[in-house]
Amino acid sequence: MAVAESAGLGPVLAFALVGVCGVGAQWLAWRLRLPAIVIMLVAGLIAGPATGLLNPSRDFGDLLSPLIALAVAVILFEGGFSLDFHRLGDAKTGVRRLVFIGAPLGWFLSVLALVWGAGLSWESAAVFGGIMVVTGPTVIAPLLRTAKLARRPARLLQWEAIVNDPIGALAAVLAFEVVFTLRSNLPMGEAVWHLALGIGFAAAIGGAVGWGIARSFSRGWVPEFMKVPVLFATLLGTFAVTDHVLHESGLLAVTVMGLVIGNADLPSYEELRRFKEHATVLLVSGVFILLAANIEIDQLAALDWHALLFVILVVLVARPLTVLISLIGTALPRNERLLIAFTGPRGVVLVAVAGLFGQRLAEIGVADGLRIGPLAFVLVLVTVIVHGFTLAPLARKLGLANADKPGLLIVGGSRFTTALAETLNKAEVPVLITDPNHAHLIRPRANGLKTFYGDILGEAAEDKVELMAYSTLLAATDNDAYNTLVATDLAPELGRDKVWQVPRQKDDRERHALPTQLGGRRFGEGRTLENWEKLLSEGWRFRVTRITEEYTLTQWREKRPKAKPVMVVAKSGDLRFVIDPAEMKVEPGGRLISLLPPEAFEEETTQKAKAGEKPSGQPGPAARIP
């Protein structure tokens, strides 16, 4: 047994365990609706110092440092690639301030917090302070979805995280280069030349490679099926070659490479984006598990009140001062500034880069470099938990939260969608109808519904439509091809189970059927938009029915045998369309939206008249449609 323990798992078993723990933690976090980084931290600590099952230094040996370095390179490339300057929208001014003023100021204040609070040396503080500019795009996105922030503060926080992601890494690289140069005891002139050469060399190589990749992809010199492999191989090659020629220049090179490719407006952008997202999920989880498992209990136990003071200074002093000073003179309302100032969760990139540079600092003789890793974990854990529990209440208190109830985004203005939207509004479900045809929005606007004129896939929609406020999508224009395009494009963002589409004409015929990965989910027993419109023209009307313990779904079926169920609003507010009425389920407290035939309303009016009640007037929302 002692021999087995000393031998360890070996690289293959250890690699498999890291993958299972990392991806499993992310899946569990999704199921529990918790920040993934917290679950990954717990998983890494259990697999590593708590049980001793995984010891990265023992199990990977000399491969550990290169593995982490390559993974961090891909993560930083993803950060640069995500920075599309054309998509900043109305958050552009605020983001520019938070980058050009906030990043240097945040770096400076973080260094002071590290020196005076955590007791780090100026060398370690300068490197770690640069990394702390990063606010964690992989963490802020799920927090924003949960809090349902208004569009502008949400975009500001999201783009600040995306933009500062590579900037924080660059700051750490530059600071490390300075420390490394000073430690090498070179003359001042030679040291400055060495530093400038490293920065210029890395930027030039990264820019040139990025330009070459973008040009070859846009000119068709690389076939579609090879674009992702070529990109990945070029990324690794660029990092390896530049880092070999000039130590520590690889991270800067791949970040610049990502910036160039991400802003090249490539037609294959979506395929590349999905690749880097998938690669980042795997690598981020793997790196985090490795770093968490590699922490020693002694290092965590050595953290004293200085670590707590450091976290307090960062959360309550450095972050608020950075944001409030940076946004002086902007048109942002006070409440939006306060929300942004007190929202700064750190994420996996911070831990990954901090762990890497902490080891590098220790290797060149900076004694407290190894303290950076544990401090990074404490900062990430505290900020994620604090902001995870306070962001939504703070947003509501400041009046910057959207409706708590999940909404429906309808693409296509018609009699059917207008009647459905009015019915949902009566059920207190937020609805937005969009259409690229202005004439199709006349009816919804006349009935007082919220609309957006334009293409939901266009850049204008990104600036003006608060997509986070809507959990479900219905593509229901009179153009089947456009419906399929919208549903296919937005499915990865909203989730395929939340994207619905009216059945296509001839969809039930084999030669016209599409593969399941195209379009949204069909509903309504295969009825097309034309079928729904015909029912409404024949006098069918929408009705909302609350299902309770006293009035069950079975009783509703018996009373309304001819009714056509359309949609279910669950007690939790979740929305789902009815695919097959025979398999439909509605829990007590939920509401069923259905179409009733004209005789149902005539019968109801007659019964009310016999009972001496006044007729309800309009039989349903659709009756008011001109």
From TrEMBL:
Span of domain Cation/H+ exchanger transmembrane: 28-397
Membrane topology classification: Multi-pass membrane protein
Xref: InterPro entries: Cation/H_exchanger_TM, Na+/solute_symporter_sf, NAD(P)-bd_dom_sf, RCK_N
Domain called RCK N-terminal: residue spans: 409-491
Any Pfam family: TrkA_N
Stretches the record annotates as Disordered: 599-626
Transmembrane portions of the chain: 12-30, 37-55, 67-86, 98-119, 125-144, 156-180, 192-213, 225-242, 278-295, 307-331, 338-357, 372-395
Protein origin, superkingdom: Bacteria
UniProt keyword terms in alphabetical order: Antiport, Cell membrane, Ion transport, Membrane, Transmembrane, Transmembrane helix, Transport
Organism: Thioclava sediminum
Name this polypeptide is given: Sodium:proton exchanger
Location(s), subcellular: Cell membrane
